[in-house]
Structure formats: structure tokens, C-alpha cells
Amino acid sequence: MKKVVKDLQFKILIEQDEDGWYVASVPELPGCYTQGKTVEQVRKRIREAIQLILESEPQLKKEKLRHPKATPQFFGVEDISIRHA
User: Can you give the residue ranges of the HicB-like antitoxin of toxin-antitoxin system domain (predicted)?
Assistant: First the structure.
């Protein structure tokens, strides 16, 4: 029997912390985050983290295979200022 292969999509958030490190997380996978010194390094590491979580959490993997598109839908990022006295 031939195995069906699906491309699973995930939204990742990448931020840069105060020390210059990049921190990546996957909102739809609880506990899925990592860090790296470069954007390329953090992208590689977050892929590895996603794979590890899917391997260790069969129910999450099963659900993602049913709905392979990325969720939640990305809306946007904004900086806002609040006046404070």
C-alpha cells in the first residue's frame, strides 16, 4: 500500500528578543517554540520542533492531517502607543 504524503502548513511567529536572538513559536501547537542566533537557524529549528511535536503527539498529528492548512488565519501585527502619565 502506498503511503499518502501531505504538505502540512503552520503559521510561525518570529520575534527578536532584547539580546538579538530570534524566537519562533507555532500558535496552533502548544509548547512549540525555539530560538536561534539567525533567522535561518530559527527557521530550521522550528521545523525540527514541529516534527518532534507531531511525532510525540499522535492526536495533534491526526487532527492536522485532517486539516492541513495553517490555522489560525493570520491577520496582522501592529505597534500601538498608549499615553501614560
Answer: 10-57
| Domain harbouring 44, CATH code | 3.30.160.250
Evaluate the CA torsion angle 37, 38, 39, 40 in order and state its sign. negative
| Rounded-to-integer distance, Cα 80 and Cα 65, Å | 37
pTM: 0.81
Q: Give how many domains the chain has, as a whole number.
A: 1
- pLDDT number for residue 75: 74
CA distance 36 to 27: 18
C-alpha pair distances (Å), 5 with each of 8, 17, 52, 79, 80: 9, 36, 17, 39, 42
Is residue 76 domain-resident? no
